[in-house]
């Protein structure tokens, strides 16, 4: 069904959360005319800044990512959960503006953030070369004031031992014509006693400047804080009734970690908040699906503070009075018939470029040239998609002729360099092509030699990886039907909570990305090995 002729007579009645399932954190929501856009963080994955589009706030379609090449961002060497943090999407004077932070570290109180700005006349581009902004903090966002000025906000990082690393929200004017920051930066807001003040967004409404921030950290203590001022530069007073939204103290709620929000206004004057949430498998347990995006309806009486009923995230909320606008369903199977990867796919630390991704050499096949080992951060060869449901599976058919044990190609349930499960084809020492299974739990690898399968010279092998709640299973098909490997692997190691590591009070690792299912090819000797994937089918159960 064409989106131009879609049935729009029936109004969309309710928003069911999360609206973006799986790894879609830190949403920045924007309306331009009748179109709504959500931009979310992507960290070490290309394309950077994932984008979704809606016309009713109920139905969303993926548009892929905005940062598609190294001209806009170079993620070579990027650490786990570093890279693109908290993008901000605005529209002003006929131009889309995207601000994004490239965070290089979070060890010992250092983040080494660098903020960039790109612009485009259309949401699909072309996007300008990036303007290099400051590196004083992350979660940068633009505010376009009614007087025509533009301002950049960000959290202000403080590396000094004994200081609060979250030093408040900083503001500085941005000259759009000169494409540079001007004037001196000022601290606009130091936050509430909750602390960890970040994620600023500024709005003008009802004669006030409204500052929305994230506080409490991005896990169980997360919240959305509101402050207001009659003057742009403050002082800002905090809502005396507490946070606009939080899940703190309510482990019974299905949606946890509620925080990091941004506001959008509908044409009829209604307000909605897009924010991140997590869905743990058990109360305050592992969030294998990562941090997701939800939307809440906001009541905003004239002269009063914005309110969300109960101040907690609802599973379902009333949609705006707009015609329903569903999009065509995404096909389960990607036959790799196009010249570029579809919007569901992401690639790790390097863009999907012809030097390692080839959709033309063999029609209806994805050729992936092998890359580095699981710990390599310059040139891995992993093509993956987000896990969007507690029960889902990815199936593929691969042709691969490894020359030795240094060449591997297969299917993976993946979180980061240290946490993954991988079923792969490789060459045994006796010359046979075999299927092997390997797992990594915080870098501790576990092989399963008793599960090794001799492929018997079969050239086309079916591979399957399946999430079933807290369990991951693998299967294979050598032509006689699917066979399941007799082992159940731990899916919860592929979670934000498991990936996070604190040593002597300092973060040695964070987990921000959620689980993926993917196609992984390694050529550890650099001998030119590649694998051809005939198709890939993703289904949620």
UniProtKB/TrEMBL annotation:
The keyword Electron transport is assigned to this record: no
InterPro entries linked to this entry: ConA-like_dom_sf, GH43_C2, Glyco_hydro_43, Glyco_hydro_beta-prop_sf, Glycosyl_Hydrlase_43
Pfam families from the UniProt entry: GH43_C2, Glyco_hydro_43
UniProt GO molecular function: hydrolase activity
SUPFAM superfamilies: Arabinanase/levansucrase/invertase (SSF75005), Concanavalin A-like lectins/glucanases (SSF49899)
Superkingdom of origin organism: Bacteria
Entry keyword set: Glycosidase, Hydrolase
Keyword flag rRNA-binding: no
Domain Beta-xylosidase C-terminal Concanavalin A-like residues, every copy: 333-539
Family listed: Belongs to the glycosyl hydrolase 43 family.
Name under which the protein is recorded: Glycoside hydrolase family 43 protein
Source species taxonomy: Bacteria, Bacillati, Actinomycetota, Actinomycetes, Micromonosporales
